[in-house]
Write a structure and sequence with these properties.
2 copies of one chain form a homodimer. By secondary structure, chain A is an alpha/beta fold. Chain A has 3 domains: about 5-45, lambda repressor-like DNA-binding domains (434 Repressor (Amino-terminal Domain)), CATH 1.10.260.40; about 55-160 and about 290-320, Response regulator (Rossmann fold), CATH 3.40.50.2300; about 160-290, Response regulator (Rossmann fold, 3-Layer(aba) Sandwich), CATH 3.40.50. Helices cover about 45% and strands about 15% of the residues of chain A. The first copy, chain A, is built from 13 helices and 12 strands. Chain A has helices spanning about 5-10, 15-25, 30-45, 50-55, 70-85, 100-115, 130-135, 160-175, 190-205, 220-230, 245-260, 280, 295-310; strands at about 60-65, 90-95, 120, 140-145, 155-160, 180-185, 215, 240-245, 270-275, 285-290, 315-320, 325. In chain A, the strands form 2 sheets. Chain A has a 6-stranded parallel sheet, with helices on both faces. A 6-stranded mixed sheet of chain A has the order 7-6-8-9-10-12, with helices on both faces. In chain A, α11 (about 245-260) links the parallel β8 (about 240-245) and β9. In chain A, α1 crosses α2 (about 15-25) and α8 (about 160-175) runs parallel beside α9. The termini of chain A are far apart. Chains A and B meet through α4, α5, β2, α6 and α11 of A and α4, α5, β2, α6 and α11 of B. The first copy, chain A, binds a DNA duplex through α2 and α4.
DNA sequence: TAGATTGGTGTTAACGTTAACATCTTTCCG
DNA sequence: CGGAAAGATGTTAACGTTAACACCAATCTA
């Protein structure tokens, strides 16, 4: 790999002049500039970002830490983040935390070493507090996405869990459902709690009590949905509808229901948070509170880069609204 | 951010001793080691990868360049690559090329600057040849994934397009289909060509001719599938089945068919390459030649790291077999 | 007991780039 | 026409880390 010095020698200038040509950081004679550029071309010279990062204390690298890149919600979010990052001249590293605090911490430490300029993170849960404090100690800018953390002051891009839940629950109730199960992710994740709160509120509003046996706490994975349904099926008095706190839970639930010979929506309605993108194109089936996941990524990168630039002062919070999409997985009874 | 020198001062040793503790590169007295580790802990010290990369000429960063992270095939592949990279102590940068040579080139240049240790790339097409030659010039190890490039000698992880196509086509023919359309991606992508070849072979084997009006070349995107179907619907003699060269094409095709009031499989059967993962869990619908996408990622990282380590000599090629999964989108006529 | 070995540690220079300052020439202005 | 300003370029040192070598003390070996 050729260096700036190789270019300098061949172009008969100092390294500094080459640096100036690369960065446009100061005037350079037109002729000299052309000569230097020609040599760079000829040598296929690409400046070493490591050396640059060392002196500039900036790497133009961002990191995106999410729970699972195979989840369409995060995939589309990642796409938004990547497009926006690229537009603004940043690259993106990504990692999966698998909803696991330990893995999350490992990643963050790696990122601290990498000297990324900032981090986008969907925290694995409230316990992420400590991990994020580490970032704050080290003054590494970050934005949390999708999940809030109580007591943590930082930039945030969140969905409106209460609104979405109200939309979903009102829909189910309008369809005549009264026994509605709630499949929750870990209660240490803000979205799980808020959606439970919304669930309770809407039931109360309609004079209904929460039946504790219909509230199942599990995890935001496919297997979580399956386990939750196994649990529900042991009840003598089955629910007529299931509200799953995210898309993976819903898919797991439907899969498990099907394996027990139950049909959706004929035997049970199933609705959830977050759409399935491609899947919904293929076969619009699931009734969902869809979130603008692409925008989550875009907005988060914008906040982050503002923060990095130092122009942002107070912490900002962006709340993106969900949209109820009624499809075939829910029906009137 | 504290440096190795801060640690050295506090621990009353030289920077070199700290470096040795970090890397375990030479003996250090047990007591000294403990003292240094304590100070590192206390200062929350994380070694600067930029400085390290500069002297070691290695960054432990890999890059994954694919056409679109929202495609489940690539998503799962990315997950496999990320898991394996992490296991081997590497981080992963990723980028979307959108099947676009120019964007691909930009990315590769960025990666050259970043001094990544290696690149995993699903080339946007045969024209990627030049882009990859740049990597070869610069002696940056890379592995191409999913798509071959004629005349390029390098490490490769590919699917078996011919086998998969044979499985799919034999299935359709066994179901009585004779007028089968083939929706192709760009013919500058090896998989498009091989699948066309397989398509032709199987038809010939059964004494059938290729009807050119049934072969539609478009692109590997959702919109490609939609456009292709618009084209097909203008024929007076419609096909009874559509074989789409990838999953996005199939989804686009089905979406468009539905918009024209045609049902799958009642009016037309649709089959394709690559599964839809989550989607297939929710609602097993599409008949596909599924490829082990997770393994594509894992194997590619293995090849790449072997290459980086210098232990690999000849270029290697791994071919992963597809698996025909028959579901409801195809039916006997 | 001299010489070699090994354990433990430090010093120096280098990796490739850029900020800060220095130098020289040319142009401008009153 | 003399001093200031602007234009063009170079020199030096620094960023944080590690390889290579050097050094010293303790231990081993013949």
């Amino acid at each position: 790999m050729s260096t700036i010095l190789d270019v300098a020698r061949l172009a008969n200038v100092s390294a500094m002049t080459v640096s100036r040509v690369i960065n446009g950081s100061a005037r350079v004679n037109e002729q000299t500039r052309l000569r230097v550029q020609e040599v760079m071309q000829q040598l296929q010279f690409y400046p070493n970002s490591n050396a640059r990062g060392l002196v500039l204390k900036e790497t133009r690298l961002l990191a995106l830490l999410i729970s699972d890149i195979t989840n369409p919600f995060f995939t589309t979010l990642a796409r938004g983040a990547e497009d926006e990052a690229k537009r603004l001249g940043y690259r993106l590293i990504f990692g999966n935390s698998d909803e696991n605090i330990g893995k999350e911490k490992e990643y963050l430490e790696m990122l601290l070493s990498t000297r990324v300029d900032g981090v986008l993170i969907a925290p694995s849960g409230d316990d992420s507090f400590e991990n994020l404090q580490l970032l704050q100690n080290k003054e590494l800018p970050f934005v949390i996405i999708d999940r809030d953390i109580p007591g943590l002051s930082c930039d945030k891009v969140l969905g409106d869990s209460l609104l979405g839940t109200h939309q979903i629950m009102e829909h189910l109730i309008a369809q005549g459902h009264r026994r509605i199960a709630y499949l929750s992710g870990s209660k240490h994740i803000s979205t799980s709690r808020l959606r439970l709160q919304g669930y309770t509120e809407v039931l109360a509003k309609h004079g209904l009590q929460v039946d504790p046996s219909l509230v199942v706490e599990t995890n935001y994975k496919l297997s979580g949905g399956q386990e939750a349904v196994q649990h529900l099926l042991q009840l003598t008095n089955l629910p007529t509808a299931i509200f799953a706190a995210n898309n993976f839970l819903a898919v797991g639930a439907i899969k498990e229901l099907r394996e027990h010979g139950l049909r959706v929506p004929d035997d049970l309605s199933v609705v959830c948070f977050d759409d399935l993108d491609l899947l919904s194109d293929l076969n619009p089936f699931l009734t969902v509170a869809a979130q603008p996941s692409y925008d989550f990524g875009v907005k988060a990168v914008e906040l982050l880069i503002d923060r990095i630039g130092g122009s942002a002062t107070d912490h900002r919070q962006i709340v993106l609204p969900p949209q109820l999409i009624i499809r075939r997985s829910s029906r009137s009874i």
